[in-house]
Amino acid sequence: MKRIAAITLYAAATLGAYTQANAASRPAASSEAIKKLLIKDEIRDTLAVYNQLVDRDDGAPTRQMWADRMFTDDADMLAFYPDGKPDIEFHGRAAILKAFGGGDGKETGLASKHYLTSVTFDEVSENHVKTHINALSITTTKNIVDQHCAGCGGQPVSISMFVYENDWVKLNGEWRIRKMIVRFKN
């Protein structure tokens, strides 16, 4: 019995010394690393709001709210299709808003939703972030059971794959997109 107790004490002491030495070799999480994690979380939350606002087609909230919440006044948006040539180029929040409806939702018989599949952070600082975001957009009829848009045949109208390259700035405590590049993959 004494021998088992001695072995147990030796094992506990050895494990304790090993754990302390191992912990000392690992730096404690720095406040800078924690700040970066919080910034990344803020960006992810903002992206969720972006998707909810851009995909609402019931008129509430309006596209104006979407543009105001997501873009700086001087934001740029560029889109490149698979041929690599710029197809869309808008300068300023007002131009972006005008291009994407500018008003309440319209009844078209179609529904469209964006799905962000991954977000990577290229740069993260207190007031500036750069991201790459893989995304899908699916457009289909609003009700494929008993209501179809003319010519759709009840099937999905389009599925688009693209990458957002966003340049974010923090203004008045909230993240806004200063530059958005969209690279369509199909």
SSE layout and pairings?
Layout lengths: L1 H24 L5 H25 L7 H8 E10 L5 E6 L1 H7 L10 E15 L3 E14 L16 E14 L2 E11 L2
Parallel strand pairs: 1-6
Antiparallel strand pairs: 1-2, 3-4, 4-5, 5-6
* H/E topology pattern: HHHEEHEEEE
Quaternary state reads single chain
Specify the number of helices. Answer: 4
| CATH structural class | Alpha Beta
N-to-C CA distance: 73 Å
Strand-residue proportion:
35-45%
Q: Could you list the spans in which at least 5 consecutive residues all have pLDDT below 50?
A: none
CATH architecture: Roll
Largest sheet: 6 strands, mixed
Q: What form results from the Cα inertia axes?
A: globular
Helicity, in percent? 25-40%
Structure class: alpha+beta
Question: What would you say this structure looks like, in words?
Answer:
The protein contains four helices and six strands; from the N terminus they run αααββαββββ. It has one domain (31-184): Nuclear Transport Factor 2, Chain: A (Roll), CATH 3.10.450. The radius of gyration is 25 Å and the shape is globular. It is an alpha+beta fold and 186 residues long. The chain has a six-stranded mixed beta sheet with strand order 2-1-6-5-4-3. 34% of the residues lie in helices and 38% in strands.
